[in-house]
């Protein structure tokens, strides 16, 4: 099976069978090198057989900072990922590095998907023009606290009297190491997210007690918000 590009450069965030999600960042330096790296990734992956069962999708996003690329991949389990690293990753990275020398691979984190919006079976058909990654870091490993923080966000969303109109969905991931939460949030556009941040309250969300609880949650030590444009999403062909 060969790799095929998915429509709208968008993975299926709710697909069954995903045991682990890997998120990593590359720094490449300029917008021109961002685009060249995405093209090299597409060429490298589409010219090879898709890895054996275990990798479900591989997606790449271009940072609006003009420097970074986000990599988001869905796997069945850790064993499948380690087999890919052992047998296939070096050859693919070597071809990409030959096309775009000087890529800095910042690191990789493991997550499991915990909760998503819209709630229930509702699916928003709008196509995202921007993916906003919200990273939250805690002062130590605590799986119950990770989930409690996400649950607090959902309470704030459900009670918000003025939800941001440009938001499409949010997919909250729990770090396997117990210290991180990653929200993969889809927006209509970068401008829609900028406008949401400019509204009342601190960050996205109204000035409600529920959002104040989220923003002052005990044990949160840091995090960040980064915007990306969907660029490439690959999965196994027929």
Topology diagram in text:
Elements: E1 3-5, E2 20-27, H1 31-46, E3 55-63, E4 68-75, H2 78-99, E5 104-117, E6 130-138, H3 143-159, E7 167-175, E8 180-187, H4 190-197, H5 209-215, E9 220-236
Helix pairs in contact: 1-2, 3-5
Task: Describe the structure in your own words.
- It is a single chain.
- The protein is an alpha+beta fold and 238 residues long.
- 29% of the residues lie in helices and 36% in strands.
- The chain contains five helices and nine strands, in the order ββαββαββαββααβ.
- The protein has helices spanning 31-46, 78-99, 143-159, 190-197, 209-215, and strands at residues 3-5, 20-27, 55-63, 68-75, 104-117, 130-138, 167-175, 180-187, 220-236.
- An eight-stranded antiparallel beta barrel has the order 2-4-3-9-6-8-7-5, surrounded by four helices.
- Helix 1 crosses helix 2 (78-99) and helix 3 (143-159) runs antiparallel to helix 5 (209-215).
- The termini are close together.
Instruction: Specify the helix fraction band.
Output: 25-40%
The class by helix and strand makeup works out as alpha+beta
Radius of gyration: 18 Å
Order of helices and strands: EEHEEHEEHEEHHE
| Count of extended strands | 9
Report strand %: 35-45%
Mean of the pLDDT scores?
93
Gross morphology is globular
Outline the biggest β-sheet.
Answer: 8 strands, antiparallel, barrel
Distance between the termini: 6 Å
Q: So how many helices?
A: 5
Low-confidence stretches are: none
The largest sheet has its strands arranged as 2-4-3-9-6-8-7-5
